[in-house]
Design brief:
heterodimer, A: 214 residues, three-stranded antiparallel sheet, B: 298 residues, alpha/beta, Purple Acid Phosphatase, chain A, domain 2, six-stranded mixed sheet, 28% helix, globular
Chain lengths: 214, 298
């Protein structure tokens, strides 16, 4: 018997402790056959939870690798460009951004939707967001992202820039702690019901996934 | 007759630029009389003096008018630097925008070697961190000290684990008498448009209280608000440096000590020993709040 369950590590530990306590208490009052049945159930659940956790870990690692592959491409390109000073003039900033944008776009001309947010990775991330935002938090998230945000008209096109004049929604910090970690050059960003990956320097939309908001 | 008419037209056309120049020099387009500078700060020798402004980047006449008031106050209170709470540029960020939304507005202060230290807002691209006049050292979050005050500029758009760890590590070894954090999104706010950023508060407030951060400046809301001290930390919102949301402060909010949402404003701050004095001045030169925070010694 295999259950496709996804639980955070804390929930797993809590479930194991509760199951153990429950089992010990029950053992004193319940017939042996019932005790045996419970033992079988626990023996199935615990490995299933461990398998699910391991699967999530592998998905996260694969996702992080695909992001790092993008970063490698853009770092190789940026290494050949003049370095941007920490005291740059506006025209230098503008030129650097445009050059990096154009070069990376050319290098990734075949990039398409779902290259990084594969269906498995997107499902995992949707679950993380759903676990993080429950009840009142979920209502507030929906209000902030779907109602109040001024980003509704952002066109979602892979390998095209996020419009410079559009605001960037703040990413909830508690969610950032739970999502797969990204290299410093890449950002998660909500646009409507979508979660994007955006390059913070050239502004390119690297990939996105829909139905991100629970 | 033709000659008379053409002379009159020519004279009219020639005097137009002069009339406009006079209008600009007279309080930058505002023909109201220039209000007197009334300083409530002690103006002590060797104190740390700075200004706090937020949500400036519009390039509008009103942003310019407020900048003129800042300039006038500098003559009486020579502040050394300005903290920017983010939304330093609204809309596009091309070369011309840096000029019209920032450089042209604050040129007189820049010429007097006043330094600007910026934080990033939700309308700011990360690349602003490379801009020479924002003094961000190429970083989205950074630290600097002035006298006995330690300043932490944070990126509240993206408070990830790296930034949290950096902040914790830096604060843990910081021995400055005053610790000040500034960033865009307010953990506490009585604003109707946005309100308190409780998710951000959940992360940063424990760090601030554990490490003795004294004062937090933020923006994002387009008004001024002084929040009642929260777990020993003083919070200010100074987000009307270029935009204003009139009447946005919820009346009767239990967290407000003082608020001003009728006009744009900026803050003058002076840290002298164990006291931080503040004065909040409106676009018309009116003092809308003032006071002093006394640091609790460890």
């Amino acid at each position: 018997m295999t259950w496709n369950i996804s639980l955070s590590e804390f929930n797993l530990q809590r479930a194991l402790v509760l199951a153990t306590v429950f089992w010990l208490r029950l053992g004193l009052t319940v017939k042996p056959i019932l005790r045996a049945s419970l033992a079988v159930m626990l023996a199935c659940v615990i490995p299933a939870i461990a398998i699910a956790q391991d699967q999530n870990k592998q998905l996260a690692e694969a996702f992080e690798k695909r992001v790092k592959d993008y970063v490698k491409v853009r770092e190789d390109i940026e290494a050949k460009m003049p370095k941007l000073s920490k005291e740059a003039k506006p025209e230098e900033i503008e030129t650097h951004k445009k050059q990096l944008q154009d070069s990376v776009r050319t290098a990734r001309a075949g990039a398409k939707h779902g290259d990084i947010f594969t269906p498995d990775a997107a499902a995992m991330i949707r679950n993380i967001i759903k676990e993080e935002f429950k009840g009142k938090d979920r209502v507030e998230l929906r209000k902030a992202v779907l109602v109040e945000a001024e980003v509704k008209a952002v066109p979602l096109r892979i390998n095209y820039p996020y419009p410079e004049a559009k605001e960037q929604l703040e990413m909830p910090p508690t969610l950032l702690l739970k999502l797969p970690q990204l290299p410093k050059q890449i950002r998660y960003r909500f646009v409507g019901d979508n979660m994007l990956l955006v390059d913070r320097e050239n502004g390119l939309i690297i990939d996105y996934m829909g139905n991100a908001i629970p | 007759m033709k000659r008379i008419i053409s002379s009159l037209v020519l004279t009219f056309l020639l005097t137009l630029p002069i009339a406009n120049a006079q209008k600009l020099s007279a309080n930058n387009g505002n023909t109201a009389p220039t209000p007197a500078v009334k300083l409530t700060l002690p103006n002590k020798a060797n104190s740390v003096r700075f200004v706090v402004i937020g949500d400036t980047g519009t390039g509008t006449d009103k942003q310019n008018e407020l900048a003129q008031v800042m300039l006038r106050y500098r003559q009486a209170f020579p502040f050394e630097f300005v903290l920017m709470m983010g939304d330093n540029m609204y809309g596009s960020e091309k070369t011309v925008d840096y000029k019209t939304k920032f450089e042209d507005v604050y040129r007189p202060l820049l010429d007097q070697k006043v330094k600007f230290y910026a934080a990033l807002g939700n309308h700011d691209e990360s690349n602003q961190r490379f801009y020479e006049f924002f003094n961000m050292e190429g970083q989205e979050y950074y630290h600097f000290t002035k006298g006995n005050v330690s300043f932490y500029s944070l990126n509240s758009n993206y408070m990830d684990k790296k930034q949290i760890d950096w902040l914790n590590d830096k604060l843990a070894t910081d021995t400055s008498e005053w610790k000040v954090a500034f960033f865009h999104h307010p953990p506490y706010s009585s604003g109707g448009a946005h309100g308190s950023d409780t998710k951000l508060r959940e992360i940063v407030e424990p760090i601030f209280t554990k490490n003795g951060v004294n004062v937090v400046f933020t923006g994002h809301e387009h008004f001024y608000e002084r929040i009642k001290p929260q777990k020993g930390v003083y919070y200010f919102i100074s987000g009307s440096g270029g935009k204003l949301r009139k009447g946005d402060v919820k009346q009767g909010s239990s967290m407000t000590d003082k608020a001003f949402d009728r006009d744009m404003s900026f803050m003058l701050i002076e840290v002298a020993g164990d006291q931080m004095h503040f004065q909040v001045i409106s676009r018309t030169g009116e003092t809308v709040d003032s006071g002093v925070i006394t640091r609790t010694k460890k």
